[in-house]
Amino acid sequence: MKVLMFGWEFPPHILGGLGTASYGLTKGMAEQKDLELTFVIPKPHGDEDQSFLKIMGACHIPVVWRENSWEHVNYRIGKFMHPDEYFWLRNGIKYDYTRIYTDELGCINFSGKYPDNLIEEISNYEAIASVLAHQMQFDIIHSHDWLTYPAGVFAKHISGKPLVIHVHATDFDRSRGKVNPTVYSIEKRGMDVADHIITVSDLTRRTVIEKYHQDPRKVTTVHNAVEPLPDADSFTKTERKDKVVTFLGRITMQKGPEYFVEAAHRVLQKTDGVRFVMAGSGDMMPAMIELVAKRGIADRFHFTGFLKGRQVHEMLGESDVYIMPSVSEPFGISPLEAMQVGTPSIISKQSGCAEILTHAIKTDYWDIDAMADAIYGIVKYPAMYNSLRNLGREEVNNIKWYNAGLKVRSIYDGVLKY
Prior knowledge:
This protein is α/β, with parallel strands linked by helices. It has helices spanning 17-29, 70-77, 83-90, 118-135, 149-159, 171-174, 181-193, 202-211, 257-270, 285-294, 310-318, 334-340, 368-380, 382-396, 401-416, and strands at 2-6, 36-41, 54-57, 140-144, 163-167, 196-199, 219-221, 243-248, 274-279, 301-305, 321-324, 345-348, 361-363.
């Protein structure tokens, strides 16, 4: 079975959980030897792991016919794509895209990020989908998150192949209910046109059914998992007197960083033997720095900035407690990553991973007293710490992407029957 997937991020260059989930799921799916995956992203860097799938860069796919020599194409993009493939794709240009600014190869420049002109980039990504849909052979289309729904819809209309969309989050999660009508419209159209909708949690499934008015029979939950960490034991704690409690993620209103700061303030009223780390970046960072100063806990608080790759596991390994106080978290992979390295986790009940984790402490995101009590208990009582550490690690090591891949395959099979 050949699968054409549209995504926006892929490791090692990621800005959030979307790339991590895309990698884990495709790697798990690739263990099914009869699946052939082509994963399209706006802008690859050339160091992506392509041992189990093919990465295609939207920025290397021509949408406007330009005359070029084989040598020039090889010089420009040979690191990413064989020139023969470029010329073959050029034959798939069926529409006039001269309104879009393109380079001398007839290709569109994509940032590969989330720029101010994101809606324009999403629209341009549709043009890429049209070329691929006309030229490639595939059995099913799979679009990850709202950024790629329009591309998936266009590819479905051109090819007649079924479309599965993967809802990693909705704008109700990202905006705390202050939904952007443009984003909602893109999400809604993608869901309406899709032959099936995959959600990363039952929490997200309910949102899709209730807020986007989708038929429940069309929506299936496939919980995320975590990539195996063979060297988990290498992430150890430096000898120190103080305990470390960590928040790791985007510092945005969705993630509830202010509740972490307030819980830290409560804990430090009971003990001064704890340090708090906020690892990440986001538009609420200045407000959080100000709140930390206002609460008088700046000497116990640390902002690391954005972490990636091994840095993430090193930070989690150094921590005695990991906390995810998200207001609305469709899933949340980071607690699973923390538990892999033996760090007890506190998660909000308003998170998708709370549906599958038993050996993590769950509190309401707004209940800073409960959060503070949980933090205090873990850092002060070794028996509680050790129990969560050992049982949590055992639990997450059995949450595998291969099983998620099997569920996705079952959805494909069901869609292709009709």
